[in-house]
Write a structure and sequence with these properties.
heterodimer, A: about 190 residues, alpha+beta, five-stranded antiparallel β-sheet, 11 strands, elongated, B: about 1050 residues, mainly alpha, two-stranded antiparallel sheet, 45 helices, 5 strands
Chain lengths: ~190, ~1050
């Protein structure tokens, strides 16, 4: 377990910034809710076995007591480095992203299942979309009752969505909560 | 018959008249022929009449000079006679007026008569004519007479040689007469002429069209008033005579062609009308630059544009009116705006062309003035109306027609295939269709209504012009460089805001939002977002100078635009929600407009269908806080919205429960952050709506009821919610409570004190700083409390004095009865009796006066106040009297003769003067002292006391006054009232004189009483400072007075 170096940090922050925009500051700065410390510490990012964890400082301090090879996980895993060295956000980061997301997409109940099986969001399944979304922005996908279902990348802007036909892809799939079942072993 | 006589009888008439007569009266001849009986009857009368006229006219021509000379002579004689005698008077004002010097003045006959006389034979004839004409003239005759009168009145020497001769003579004579007339007469005459010419024009415009030129001629008079009148009357004439079509002058070719007389006449009429209209407009436009005629010219043009927007030269009219649309002159601006609006609304009059022109001109104006115009100039657009069906239904119908045509053709083809037609038949058929098409084309060109295609085109052009203007304004108001310059300007000059056009522009955008092309939508939204103050990087905002109301308006417009284009996609305007969330905190009740806020709440929260949970919770929390801190109408609007949000979002009802934390719902933010700028990050779900329990104690019953209703929502089933969705929108609620508040204000002005204290109470609930609030309360109510206390003590004092008076009365009456007993017991001698009688009389009078004074006191002492209340007060005074049993004070008296009010304000106990009461150790412990306003009955006796009093010469005003020895058990009060009196009477306002007064008192009195005098003096000064604020006394003079005391 080690803190991230500069390159890794920028890679992660860039990814997060796509989804949260200026709220990224909030993610880094928010006071920790776990641990007995008073005043509460911050959250920090740790790299452990190619995975990036988001954990409070007190938790990290306690985790140092455990040897690296014995430690399986700490805090929340938000992403991992692939073999090619690229950083990828995993589905566990969904709660963090959903709380701070700038661009949201709400799905019609009929389109929920399709998305949860790993398909992209089509215009026909779109119930609502945040204004001013541009193509390439990170988007968090919600059900109509405000339950976060997953996240992806917007394929077209809000303006273009208006004109697109019902079968056009609006959001490219990145992760969804169905993965907890589908890829249980990988996670 | 009739016609013959008419033509033949007047041989003396100038030859032109019969010529024209015949031309004109063709129809009338028919008329006469048809009604021979009627006409025959008329002709008998006419013969005489015309004879008379002709002869008279002839006379006039021949003897004109003589007659006028004679008249002038007569007039001069008359004047002379009047001046000499001075007694020739008008019948109406027969009574003479006597001036201050005693001269008798007689009103002489005034202008109207003179005017009538001097108007000459022309007007006489005219009057004569019109009198008779009204009764029994046929159309032809009337025309003839009008001709005559016109000629005489106008000295136009164009038509005939004879006429020119006559005119020349006439004008010469007229000029001479004019010289004689005073300017006023001239004015009156011109007025009359204007009216006459106008009337003749209106009676028959076709014939008298030439007199338009005369009217125009009058308009170029030197006299401003005449010019103004002329311009106005010409407007009236034009308004009535301008035809309902546009005049097209005939081309050269057409002129060459031979046409009938009627056509010629019409052509002549139209060309004259057009040329004079043109001349008139040129004149108006010239006048528009003249400041003294500016208003009038603009008004004339507005009237014309309003009445005849279809007529020639409307472009010039529109140009001038639009140029003045943002004039600094209020009247002119209002006029222009009204006109443009009426042009916009009455499109049927001109078929939309003028609207397009006006809109284009306005947008050019905005461009030229760099968006620095009066808001009215853009507000005009709001009255535009776009027919949306034009664009949709028509093309469909056309398509349908095409389809049907195709079908028909197909059918035809089929038919032709089925039954091959013969050659002749086909030709016939083709011919038929051709003629049909031609016919329909002709119909289209003839029909007045413009083609729907054309109308659609104009509409789209108008729209593009309008949106061009709007976008220009938006862009302009976002330009940061302009911002800075405007900020600098604002510091120097307080104009109508840096963005005068933004408000109406936003309104217009809201109204026409549904007509915007979707391609523009993105840019528009980003514009609005920037204007609403949203900033991506949360840096310092260069657009911060927009007011809260304007920002709210931006949000509202954004939502309207989105809602109007909702058919495409449901878009969540998160940025605007964030803005609203922050603007709620910036709202100040008196700076910003509450109705805009209510509108924003309605469009954004109340009408919005879907909100995610966190946002709804954040808004609920913030609205509750908002309801606590602002006025009742805002609170009402906020509560209505809050209730609606709670009903819609059942998950947010956990806010109403008593345990903070929100459980799993609260998301990542575990603690409520009230200052968060993003509703999603505020963590409102972790909080409790404690505000509601405070709001339910609101002084306004409707608000408190609403609040308690909301808090009762916890127990509600989710299924019940839909039934409870009320129809009351925040805007309605706001308006209702606003009205309620106004009513309350009007009704309970008296009980404002109570209300205010309640309001204070409600503010205390906020409980930010209890001491602060109390301080506020004190500050606000200090003067009210002071006034109340003053009244209270006044009443108490009156009661005390009343009691004293009663005691006095009892004592005197007992003394009297004692004395009577004594009288009965001993029959006294005659000598003594006289003295006793005197004493008796005095006593009786004194009793009477005391009784009167009691009566006069009674109404002042409220019956509800019991003695128990006064007791403490009396006890206080008695203790004072015990401590200083006998102070002999010297009361300064103002000089009695000065003024009755002065003397009346100086009551004096008569017992002292009488000296019949036994003096004891405490002299007069129950003596009374009137307040100045109490009685007047004793004052007669007061005068007598003056000589007895010891006089001590003082300084200036002290010398005028007299010192009076007084025995008092309340020296402090007596001193104070005496000083007060002195100050009042002598109007001592400056410090040195007040000081003088103090010295005077100190000098007059014993050293023992000095302390009391100074105390009274200081008290008095404090009182004066508090109440009248007449002088600003620093502490230095007070110290000075204390030093005096020590001395």
């Amino acid at each position: 377990m080690r803190p991230l170096d500069e390159k890794e940090t920028t890679a992660i922050f860039e990814k997060l910034f796509k989804f949260t925009g200026p709220n990224l500051k909030q993610i880094v700065d928010r006071p920790a809710t776990e641990g007995p410390d008073d005043p509460p510490g911050r959250y920090c990012f740790r790299l452990h076995k190619n995975r990036v964890y988001y954990a409070s400082e007190s938790l990290v301090r306690r985790a140092t007591n455990i040897s690296g090879d014995k430690l399986v996980s700490l805090g929340t895993c938000i992403g991992k480095y692939t073999h090619s060295g690229a950083f990828r956000l995993t589905i566990q980061s969904l709660d963090l992203l959903a709380a701070h997301a700038r661009h949201k997409v709400w799905l019609k109940p009929t389109a929920e299942m399709s998305f949860l099986y790993g398909n992209a969001v089509l215009k026909g399944g779109l119930a609502r979309i945040t204004d001013n979304t541009h193509a390439g922005d990170g988007v968090v996908v919600f059900s109509m009752s405000d339950v976060p279902l997953g996240f992806g990348v917007a394929a077209r802007s809000t303006q273009d969505c208006r004109k697109a036909d019902a079968n056009a892809i609006v959001v490219n799939h990145q992760a969804d909560v169905g993965e907890y079942l589908r890829n249980e072993g990988e996670l | 018959m009739g016609k013959k006589k008419k033509v033949n009888l007047p041989p003396q008439l100038p030859p032109d008249i019969p010529d024209e007569e015949i031309e004109v009266s063709d129809e009338d001849l028919d008329f006469v022929k048809k009604n021979i009986e009627y006409a025959g009857f008329l002709t008998k009368l006419d013969a005489n009449l015309i004879n008379r006229h002709v002869s008279r006219v002839a006379d006039y021509k021949e003897d004109e000079l003589e007659a006028i000379y004679e008249r002038k002579k007569k007039k001069a004689d008359l004047k002379k006679a009047r001046e000499e005698e001075g007694l020739q008077v008008d019948r109406v004002d027969a009574l003479p007026i006597k001036t201050l010097e005693g001269e008798l003045c007689y009103r002489t006959v005034e202008e109207p008569n003179i005017v009538h006389k001097d108007d000459g034979p022309a007007s006489e004839v005219k009057e004569h004519d019109s009198d008779k004409g009204l009764v029994k003239l046929t159309k032809a005759e009337r025309r003839q007479k009008l001709k005559k009168s016109k000629k005489e009145a106008k000295r136009q020497a164009k038509d005939e040689v004879k006429a020119t001769l006559v005119e020349g003579l006439h004008s010469d004579v007229l000029a001479k007469v004019e010289e004689d007339l005073s300017a006023q007469d001239l004015f009156a005459r011109k007025k009359v002429r204007l009216a006459e010419v106008g009337m003749t024009l209106l009676e028959n415009p076709e014939l008298n069209i030439k007199s338009l030129k005369d009217l125009l001629h009058i308009c170029s008079d030197e006299d401003h008033n005449i010019v103004k009148l002329g311009l106005m009357s010409v407007v009236a004439v034009f308004k009535d005579i301008i035809p309902g079509y546009r005049i097209r002058l005939p081309t050269e070719k057409e002129l060459e062609m031979k046409v009938s007389k009627d056509v010629l006449q019409t052509r002549f009429y139209e060309s004259t009308l057009l040329s004079s209209y043109k001349a008139y407009l040129q004149k108006l436009i010239a006048f528009e630059k003249d400041p003294s005629f500016h208003r009038l010219a603009v008004r004339c043009m507005c009237i014309l544009l309003d009445a005849v927007p279809h007529f020639n030269f409307r472009e010039n009219l529109v140009a001038v009116v639009v140029r003045n649309i943002s004039s600094a002159d209020n009247v002119v601006r209002k006029l222009c705006c009204e006109t443009i609006k009426s042009v916009f609304t009455n499109e049927g009059k001109h078929g939309g062309q003028v609207t397009l022109e006006a809109v284009r001109l306005i947008s050019d104006l905005v461009k030229a003035h760099d968006c620095q115009l009066h808001p009215d100039s853009i507000e005009v657009f709001l009255s535009l109306f776009f027919d949306e069906d034009l664009g949709k239904s028509e093309p469909k119908e056309e398509k349908r027609e095409k389809l049907s045509k195709k079908k028909k053709r197909k059918q035809h083809l089929e038919q032709s295939n089925q039954l091959p037609m013969s050659e002749g038949k086909r030709r016939k058929h083709e011919l038929m269709t051709k003629t049909r098409e031609e016919l329909s084309a002709d119909l289209k060109s003839v029909s007045f209504a413009p083609d729907s295609d054309e109308r659609r085109r104009t509409q789209s052009e108008i729209l593009s012009a309008i949106f061009g203007t709007y976008f220009r304004i938006l862009k302009h108001s976002m330009d940061p460089s302009f911002q800075r310059s405007m900020l600098n300007d604002n510091s120097s000059s307080t104009g109508p805001g840096p963005r005068p056009l933004l408000g109406p522009c936003l309104m217009g955008l809201g109204k026409f939002a549904h007509l915007i092309d979707l391609d523009f939508l993105g840019d528009l939204m980003s514009c609005l977002k920037k204007l609403a103050g949203y900033n991506e990087s949360f840096n310092d905002n260069p657009l911060g100078s927009l007011s809260v109301s304007e920002k709210l308006q931006c949000c509202i417009v954004a939502f309207r635009v989105m809602r109007n284009n909702l058919d495409a996609l449901n878009v969540d305007l998160q940025e605007f929600y964030v803005q609203l969330y922050n603007l709620l905190l910036e709202y100040r009740p008196f700076r910003d407009r509450g109705d805009v806020l209510a509108e924003a709440l309605k469009t954004m929260l109340w009408e919005g269908k879907q909100h995610d949970m966190h946002r709804a919770a954040a808004f609920i929390k913030r609205l509750a806080t908002f309801a606590l801190s602002f006025g009742s109408s805002e609170a009402m609007a906020a509560l209505v919205t809050l209730k609606h949000l709670l009903l819609r979002n059942s998950k947010c009802r956990s806010l109403l429960e008593n345990d903070p934390g929100g459980g799993s719902l609260s998301g990542l933010v575990v603690k409520y952050k009230p200052e968060a700028s993003d509703p999603h990050l505020s963590g409102a779900l972790a909080s409790v709506l404690w505000e509601l329990s405070l709001v339910s104690k609101h002084h306004n019953p409707s608000i408190s009821g609403m609040a308690s209703g909301i808090s009762a929502m916890t127990t509600m089933n989710p299924s019940q919610t839909q039934a409870y969705l009320s129809a009351l929108s925040p805007v309605n609620a706001f308006d209702d409570s606003q009205i309620e508040r106004e009513l309350l204000k009007a009704l309970n002005r008296k009980s404002s004190f109570k209300q205010r204290s309640k309001k204070m109470g409600s503010e205390e609930f906020v409980a930010i700083d209890a001491e602060k609030v109390r301080g506020l309360e004190k500050e606000e109510d200090e003067d009210v409390i002071e006034r109340k206390f003053e009244e209270h003590f006044m009443v108490l004092r009156d009661i005390g004095e009343n009691e004293k008076l009663r005691l006095e009365l009892g004592r005197v009456s007992s003394a009297l009865s004692l004395y009577e007993e004594y009288k009965q017991q001993r029959k006294p001698k005659q000598k003594k009796q006289k003295k006793q009688k005197k004493a008796m009389g005095k006593l009786k009078s004194s009793i009477k006066s005391i009784q009167e004074s009691i009566i006069s006191f009674k109404p002042k002492a409220p019956s509800c106040i019991h003695e128990a209340k006064t007791h403490s007060f009396r006890a206080c005074t008695s203790s004072l009297s015990l401590h200083n049993p006998d102070h002999i004070t010297q009361l300064q008296k103002t000089h009695m003769e000065d003024s009755p009010s002065c003397s009346s304000s100086s009551p004096f106990p008569k017992q002292q003067e009488q000296g019949c009461l036994p003096p004891n150790g405490r002299i007069n412990p129950k003596r009374f002292f009137f307040s100045p306003r109490s009685t007047k009955s004793i004052m007669e006796e007061v005068k007598n006391c003056a000589p007895k009093a010891k006089t001590v010469p003082g300084s200036s005003f002290c010398e005028e006054s007299e010192a009076i020895v007084m025995v008092s058990d309340e020296p402090y009060r007596d001193f104070r009232s005496s000083m007060m009196e002195m100050v009042k009477v002598h109007e001592l306002r400056d410090w040195p004189r007040l000081q003088q007064l103090l010295h005077c008192y100190l000098r007059l009195n014993d050293r023992k009483t000095h302390k009391i005098i100074v105390l009274a003096f200081v008290d008095l000064i404090m009182h004066l400072m508090a109440h009248e604020e007449l002088f600003s006394l620093s502490s230095a003079p007070l110290c000075f007075s204390l030093r005096d005391l020590e001395k």
